[in-house]
Amino acid sequence: GGHSGWEDVGGLDDIQNSIKEIIELPSKFPNTFIQSPLRMRSNVLLYGPPGCGKTHIVGAAAAACSLRFISVKGPELLNKYIGASEQADLVSTSLNKKFRIIVGNSHIEMKREHVRDIFSKAAAAAPCLLFFDEFDSIAPKRGHDNTGVTDRVVNQFLTELDGVEVLTGVFVFAATSRPDLLDAALLRPGRLDRLLFCDFPSQRERLDILAVLSRKLPFAEDVNLDAISHMTEGFSGADLQALLSDAQLEAVHNFLDSENDSNQGKMPVITDALLKSIASNAK
Ligand code: ATP
């Protein structure tokens, strides 16, 4: 793993361009941003079906723009809640992937204070990209939680988002595959008001994703990714990744099964026939 930048992202060109603009404009034209009487919008909600690259593109953006990356994941918090006996690392943040900071520990569930804490850590780490993944599980619609804890979390988000100015150098991104579950107030102007839709990839985008993901794979010479991209209508980026890793595994098995002297010193390779048979059996 590890993100090294835009070259790891296949397709999603419009989204890449929007993100570049959002992140780069304030530093290119600081005076415009300082003098503008308007609140400039730099907070982003990525939404769309699972596995279509929302998390992936945000990590790539942080790396490509040399921003520190603070990532907070919803279900991680919930899992910790369920397993409250284990020592809970509520939020782990990685700064340029070199250090880890734990924001708060041995708490039981995400509370308003954690939201405040995360935003103040982000302000201290600026310029940075503060990312909330699976945001629907962190900030669902208010009014459905008897304890009121989640409602207070959402209220604190609203307060914090209203306080984030472009020039503080904190870019707030969130991602969800269920935008309908979010509290609508989060999406009002000045909050997470740049909505970017990550859809299933087109054929051209699938080809691009396959090329990106297979860069270091041992392909036989006959592999034709163009044909594979045409066979995989409806696949997400995550599905394409699974296809390639299944092919890799299968290639290793085939290699072991056919072990003989002629294999000596050779490596298992992924053939076109193998990719095609897996692609046509998946989905
Ligand atoms: P979820 O809603 O389930 O969190 P997601 O949209 O955030 O899904 P990712 O986690 O970003 O999806 O994608 C899963 C994996 O699929 C990534 O780790 C990456 O390897 C691969 N992938 C998805 N889309 C792309 C893409 N456009 N380019 C390269 N790889 C991709």
Automatic annotation (TrEMBL):
It is found in: Membrane. Residues 40-202 form the AAA+ ATPase domain. Belongs to the AAA ATPase family. This is Peroxisomal ATPase PEX1. It comes from Abeliophyllum distichum. The chain holds residues 839 to 1121 of 1161 of the full protein.
